[in-house]
Cell wall elongation regulator TseB-like domain-containing protein
Amino acid sequence: MKNKQSLLFTGPKWIRWTVFISFLLFVSCSIYLIFLYNDLLDSKTAGYEETKQQLLKAESLTEIDKVETFYGKEAYHVVYGKDEDGQNKLIFYPLKGKEKKLITVDQSEILSKSEIKNTWKQECDQCELVRITPALVDGNELWELTYVDSSKRYVFDYLDMYDGSRYEQLRFKSMFK
C-alpha cells in the first residue's frame, strides 16, 4: 500500500494559501473581538475608582460595597457603602460638573430591593424581571424596575424608594419579531 499524503501538502498551491489565509483571518478576528470585549467592559465601569476615591477622601463613606451607574437626564454613579457610624448609605454621585452635589439616602429608611421585587412579583406574576437599580429622576429617589411584561413589552417602572408608590411607567412595544 502506498502512503497517502494529505491533499493540503501535495495539492495545488492555491489550496495551501487559502487554508493559511483563512486561518490567519480567523486568528486575527478572534484577537480583535477579545480586545473589543475588554474595551467595552472597561468603559462600562469607567470612573468607578475615581468616584470611590473622592467619596472616601471626602469622608462621606468609610467603606464602599458596590458602584452602579444610572443614566437619566443626568448620569450618576450610585454608590452603596457605610458611613463612620456603620449606617448603610446610598449616594448618588453626579458625573457632570466640577462641583458635585451629592444626594445621600439612608438605606434603613427606604424599601429594600427585595421588598420592591416581592411587591412587584405579586402585581405582575407573568413578567420577567431584567433588573432593579436605584434611580434619580427630577430630584426624586426611585427604584427603576426593568422587565418584560406578559404582553412582551419592555417596561421601565419607577417606584418611590420610601413608600413604593409609582412615579412613572414607560412601556415599549417591539416593532420587529
